[in-house]
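User: structure tokens for this one?
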Amino acid sequence: MRTAVARRNEMLDTFINNANSGLLRIYTGTRPTDADTALSGNTLLATLTMNATSFGSASSGVLTANAITSDASADATGTATFARLWESDGTTPIGDFSLGTSGTEVIVNTTSVVTAAVVSCSSFTITNPVGT
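Assistant:
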């Protein structure tokens, strides 16, 4: 299936409304199969807070996050490997995302997190692909 850009944008805009004031939590370890899979052996390194309006409107099948509040004091030391976006209740998962210092969905200042250090996110994009 190949989806029209307008439909891809519509799906993204509907999907992401639940992320307003949500939490972007950064973890160590293997990224689970999907966001419905319980975390197992993953260490929570940092929790960043999404803006009250988390993303702008989708364009060309891409959502771009508005400003994200940094975590001023990381919870643990470890190598950040992925991020999970949670609704504002902190218990309802939205999705898991690739994470790194470049070329990933979530761009952070470092993947080598140290307890009590600042962890910031400079970019977070979600793409709804065209399909095959």
